[in-house]
C-alpha cells in the first residue's frame, strides 16, 4: 500500500531518499537511474508513488512522466529537481506530475509531499528492511555540492514557484 519507486541517476541521491522514506515506514520497491528504466520499473512494480529526478541520461524525467501516465493515467509522480530548473518543473507538471520536491532534500517536505499523495503508514506497520547503502549516504550538508553556483535569485524564484504550484495542486 505504500510502495515507492525512486528514480535518480545519482546513487547517493537515491540513497538519501530511500533513507528518509525508510525512517517513515515507506517501502522502496524499486529504483531506476534513467527515465527509460523508470518506465520499465513502473510497469513491473506498479508502485503507489514515483519520486523522479528531472535531468537524467537517455530519457528525461519529464518524458518518463508522460510515458508512465500514458500507461497508467492514475500514476502519481513527484518530480525532484535542483533549483534553477523552473521551466523543466513546469513542463513536468504540464505532463501530469502531481508535485515536486526541491533538491537538496528537506526531510519534512519529502514526507509531507509523500503523505499528502499516498497517506501515512500506520505506526504498527512493519518496518521495511534496512536500506542498502544508506549508512554511507552523505549528510544533508554534503548535498549542496550538486547545487553549487546557484544564486539567491534562482533560489527565490524556485521557492515562489514551489509555493504557487503546491497551492494549485493542494500538495
Order of helices and strands: EHEHEHEHEHH
The average pLDDT value, as a whole number, equals 78
Termini distance? Answer: 19 Å
Largest sheet: 5 strands, parallel
**Beta-strand percentage?**
15-25%
Note poorly predicted spans: 133-158
Helix content: 40-55%
CATH class: Alpha Beta
Proper CATH architecture = 3-Layer(aba) Sandwich
How does this model look, in words?
The protein is of the alpha/beta class. It has a single domain, classed as Rossmann fold (3-Layer(aba) Sandwich), CATH 3.40.50. The chain contains 6 helices and 5 strands; from the N terminus they run βαβαβαβαβαα. Strands 2-1-3-4-5 form a 5-stranded parallel β-sheet, sandwiched between helices. Helix 4 links the parallel strand 4 and strand 5. Helix 3 runs parallel beside helix 4. The longest helix has 18 residues. The two termini are 19 Å apart.
List keywords for this structure.
Rossmann fold, 43% helix, 5-stranded parallel β-sheet, alpha/beta, 171 residues, globular
Short description:
By secondary structure, the protein is of the alpha/beta class. It has six helices and five strands, in the order βαβαβαβαβαα. Helix 1 links the parallel strand 1 and strand 2.
Secondary structure: elements and pairs:
Blueprint: E1 3-7, H1 11-23, E2 27-32, H2 35-45, E3 49-53, H3 61-71, E4 77-82, H4 86-94, E5 99-103, H5 107-118, H6 152-169
Parallel strand pairs: 1-2, 1-3, 3-4, 4-5
Helix pairs in contact: 2-3, 3-4
Amino acid at each position: 500500500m505504500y510502495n515507492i519507486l525512486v528514480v535518480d541517476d545519482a546513487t547517493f541521491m537515491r540513497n538519501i531518499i530511500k533513507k528518509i522514506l525508510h525512517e517513515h515506514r515507506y517501502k522502496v520497491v524499486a529504483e531506476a537511474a534513467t527515465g527509460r528504466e523508470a518506465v520499465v520499473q513502473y510497469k513491473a512494480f506498479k508502485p503507489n508513488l514515483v519520486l523522479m529526478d528531472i535531468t537524467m541520461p537517455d530519457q528525461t524525467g519529464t518524458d518518463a512522466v508522460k510515458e508512465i501516465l500514458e500507461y497508467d493515467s492514475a500514476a502519481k509522480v513527484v518530480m525532484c529537481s535542483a533549483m534553477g530548473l523552473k521551466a523543466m518543473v513546469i513542463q513536468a507538471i504540464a505532463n501530469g506530475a502531481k508535485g515536486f520536491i526541491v533538491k537538496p532534500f528537506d526531510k519534512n517536505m519529502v514526507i509531507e509531499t509523500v503523505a499528502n499523495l499516498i497517506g501515512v503508514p500506520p505506526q504498527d506497520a512493519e518496518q521495511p528492511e534496512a536500506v542498502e547503502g544508506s549508512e554511507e549516504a552523505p549528510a544533508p550538508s554534503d548535498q549542496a555540492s550538486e547545487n553549487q553556483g546557484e544564486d539567491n535569485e534562482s533560489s527565490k524564484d524556485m521557492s515562489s514557484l514551489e509555493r504557487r504550484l503546491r497551492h494549485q495542486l493542494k500538495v
